[in-house]
Every structure is written in structure tokens, then in C-alpha cells.
């Protein structure tokens, strides 16, 4: 079987393609935002619902800045639009990177891409349904005597966005685990042997990603560990890349070495010089 060859593109064509993909992704986010903007108050109320349910009777959220009652709901809507358009954004990223992948790489890249989107959404839903009620119930009940809990809407939005992002990223652990095994960075045996370090690392990641409270750290560290175990199980369904075989007999020419890097940079420099000369001739 002849080795698969990839079509080489110029730097200018890559930049044009990147611009096209960014415009399509940005247009999707903007279109969703414009459609959702009339419902910005409802969207913010939905996001604030886990805290509102835990506030003492008679308490409410407050706005400490002049423009925050107007800007905060729209900011929430913008992030909601980005959240809902994530499949389109990731698809545009995939479409930009796909021409540089070999057929065998594309076969496992597509299910991993779909899985990463689904896991990100699952992480955010887990944060909203499970984590928020527990965290806010603890915070409101821990208020000292004589202190009225009245959270600023801007501070609340910043807080929940961090948690949404943290849990969305944390739920990508199975995908990362599978990729590390596929590309030969590590093996399931090594990961099982170092499981204790990974559990400790889960709590360290939870400490970094979440706000400074122990409850959030535990609620993110335990799912990271369980998802890591799931990644180990599912990694057996994917074939590990064999260096030097997947790309045929001329794989050494395609490896990312200092020589190939220098050759590529020389080619880019030559292409830029040619473009400058052509522009000067046209003048």
C-alpha cells in the first residue's frame, strides 16, 4: 500500500482559510446572541436560580455598579451564545486542521471531537444541577449572625463562569487520557501504576480551577478521577499509533525535527520575499 501524501498549501492559503473559519465561527456566535438578546433577563434569571433558591427569605441579589443591571444580563447572554455555538466553533477548528491529518488520524479524531463536545456540555450541566445547589447552600448557611447575604450580580456571574469553565474542562479528562495513550506518550500500564499520583493531581487541578473553597475542589476532583478511570477503560478500543509505520516508508521526511522546521521557515521566508518582489514589479 502506497503511503498517503498530503497536499502542501502556501502560508497565504492557510491564512485565508483561517480567516474564513474564524468568520464563520464568529458569525454563528453573533447570530445566536442577536436571537437571544431579547430574552437576556430570562437567561440571567435562569443562571441565577441556584443562588436565588438558597437565599434567606426577603433577601435578593444587588447591583453595586451603575451599568451592571443593564450589562450583566447581556454579558450572560453572550456567554450563553458562545456556549450553545460551541459545536460549530469546534467544527470550524476541526475543518481547518483536518487537511493536515492522515486518514487513520481522522478516523479517531471525529469520535474524539464529538465526545469532547458532549463531555464539555455534561460538565457544565453537572456544575449547574449538582455543584451550584451544594456550594450556594453552604455559603448562605455559613454567613455569620447579623450578616445579610446579598450577592452582587456581576460577582455572581464571574463566579459561575469560572465554575462552568472549570467543570467543562475537567470533564475532558477521558479524551486527554485516550489521546496520550494513542500517540504513545504513555501507556495504560504506566497510568495504572501511577494512579495515586493522578488522584493527588486531580485535587491539585481542582484547587487551581475552582474558587478558593474546599467543597468545589472536592466536587471537581472526584469526577476528574472517575473520568480518568473511564478514559483508561475506553482507551482499549483505540489503536495506539506505531511510530514509523503509519506514514509509510518515508515517514522520516514528515517527522517534526529541527531540520524540517528550518526547511519550512526557509520556504515561508522565500514565499514572503517573492510576494514582496511581485508587489514591487506591479508598482
Shape: globular
Q: How much strand? A: under 5%
Main structural class:
mainly alpha
Helical percent range?
Answer: over 70%
Global Rg: 24 Å
Number of strands: 0
How do the helices and strands follow one another from N- to C-terminus? HHHHHHHHHHHH
- Uncertain regions spanning at least 5 consecutive residues: 243-258
Count of runs of 4 or more consecutive helical residues: 12
Distance between the termini: 50 Å
Could you report the average pLDDT, rounded to the nearest whole number?
A: 79
Largest sheet: none
How would you explain this protein's 3D organization?
Helix 9 (195-209) crosses helix 10 (214-234). It is built from twelve helices and no strands. Helix content is 73%, strand content 0%. By secondary structure, it is mostly helical.
Question: How would you summarize the topology of this molecule?
Answer:
Elements: H1 11-36, H2 40-52, H3 68-84, H4 86-97, H5 103-141, H6 153-170, H7 173-182, H8 188-193, H9 195-209, H10 214-234, H11 251-254, H12 258-282
In short:
This protein is mainly α. The chain has helices at 11-36, 40-52, 68-84, 86-97, 103-141, 153-170, 173-182, 188-193, 195-209, 214-234, 251-254, 258-282.
Give the key terms.
283 residues; 73% helix
